[in-house]
Amino acid sequence: MKEQFSRQCFLGADSEQLFASLRAGIVGLGGGGSHIAQQLAHLGVGHFALFDPDVMEMPNLNRTVGATHQDAVAGLPKVRIAERLITGVNPSAVVWPIQKPWQQDFLALRACDVVFGCLDGFTLRAQLEESCRRALIPLIDIGMDVHEASPYSIAGQMVSSMPGGPCFRCVQLFKEADLNEEAARYGAAGENPQVIWPNGILASTAIGFFVQLFTPWCDADNANAFIGYDGNRLGLEHDVRLAHAPRCGHFKGIADLGDPFWQAEL
Amino acid sequence: MNIHFKIPTALLDEVLADLKRPHPFAAERLGFLAGKCCSSREGLLLIAHSYLVTPDDWYIDDNAYGCVFGPQAIRAAMQVCLDKKACMFHVHLHDHEGIPTFSRADLRESANFIPDFFNVRPEIPHGAVVLSSDKAVGLCWYPSREKPMRINKFSGVGFPMRHVGRL
Amino acid sequence: MASVQHIAELNQVCGGEATEYHEFGLHYILLPALRLPQGCTPGIVDALLSLSPRENYPTRLFFAQQVQSKNPLNWNSQSVPILQRTWFAYSWNYVTNDSRPLEVLANHMKALQ
Questions:
Q1: Nearest-CA neighbor of A232 among A206, A189, A201, A266?
Q2: Is residue B167 part of a domain?
Q3: Which residue of C has its CA nearest to A167?
Q4: Residue A103: pLDDT above 90?
Q5: pLDDT at site A156
Q6: Which candidate among A33, B72, C29, C70 keeps its CA 20 to 30 Å from the CA of B165?
């Protein structure tokens, strides 16, 4: 075991080799995704597919881990900032910095062993979940919001979408009405307040789930996870919606797997 | 081409439980996995969806081989292949730990009947998988290619992930 | 499910076989090489007719790429992943699914004329 991983040997004798062999997809390299990238790099994950069409701007600097003031001035692509962050910790990491929406590179997404969703909006989450289910990829999603409420409240969640398990609709992360309402606004998220620390907490929780998913270090039964974060009371709690989630009927048919238009390379 | 075979762990457990059941005369049981495929930047993904059990009376009592299936088994698999446009993978178990291997008989018989699935669905891959209690090997017959290709990686997808890694 | 007759009608306006698909409970018909009205660029494009309600539309017509038409349209759906391809759609609402698929298609195509 390399010295840099000696303190995490309790994760299993093969954990270093395992992490090194995994490809993690991170969709969205903003406030949440940048934390994810940093922690995965430190864990020793060896391969990354980073999806984000955006460039760094000054208003992002309050929460994008790894970004510098100069990056914001220069407008560096967020995927390049994350790439630099990852390879600075793990020079042997193989990084695919994909500066476009993930929907424009299904081939790269499908090559991932796990995908972290760090997107704004329910529609994009729904779309990402559908593609991950088609390729039988575990999806770990994080999100947070700052709401105006006497005067403000911070809330967020980490939700897993495991093949065979309850999906985002089953656990009511969103409903059809939410998707319709978002479509009516043409998906515009607006410039919501965003801060660094809830992203860090949710990203760390997501990484904790990821490590349990891939290594046998503990026998906690977290087969599906819906962890809510209350940023005002500073607490994480298992959301009751998971316990009441029905058996998933949204993703079940064989036709919902793979690529319906797949053609052999001749 | 890298070929990655993925199967939900719940389905894998179902398959192992079936294949471990004793049979009145066959030394080994067999079944078929039906699934779909897609391409990735790494190569080909094969995704298992469901398992066809071979009923006891579909086996043939043959002293020469440990496990021989009758025409009903292949007909049932062909029907699923056609109806669901499914990639079909013959599967059986070598009940030990560690990486299993295709026996010479396995290779010979697979080469005989797996390509028959191309008569039904020539446009998608089919193949054969040998499971052990904790590992797997597999061969994939790719459309328009005569010889099968080795499946490089198997993943049991669930909590926790199983059989992850390259063989 | 569309009938054989309905599919045959759609084949008349496509360059290939119209094919039904279902994804996550929604019903689509692929229209390969759909011929578009005069004045459109490109004149032929793959299209996907959604016959299930989604995003506040009772039915929707998606295209493999944005199309230039005589009158400018509001292409408010971009790179929508359906059936593992990405699709584009303009805003054209209230085309219900209570007529033949060919009529549904024609009602959507009015926006391009």
A1: A201
A2: no
A3: C24
A4: yes
A5: 96
A6: A33
The nearest CA of chain A is from the CA of C81 a distance in Å of 6
| Tens of pLDDT, residues B142-160 | 998 989 999 999 999 999 9
| Six-digit token string for B40 | 């990735």
| Total number of domains in chain B | 1
Q: A107 and B166 in contact by Cβ < 8 A?
A: no
Q: Show residues of chain B in contact with A266, CB under 8 Å.
A: 144
CA angle, residues A113, A116, A121, in degrees to nearest 5: 140
pTM for the model stands at 0.95
Give all chains having 3 or more CB-to-CB distances under 8 Å with chain B. Answer: A
Number of Cβ within 10 Å of residue B42's Cβ equals: 19
Domain annotation covers residue B44: yes
Euclidean distance between CA atoms A240 and A237, whole angstroms: 9
Looking at residue C24, its pLDDT comes to: 87
Domain that holds residue B26: 2-157
Mean pLDDT of chain B, nearest integer: 92
Percentage above 70 pLDDT, chain C? 100
A188 touches chain C (CB under 8 A): no
ipTM of the complex model: 0.94
Whether the bond between A151 and the residue before it is cis, its omega within 30 degrees of 0, is yes
CATH number attached to the domain at A3-253: 3.40.50.720
The answer to whether C1 faces chain A, any CB pair under 8 Å, is no
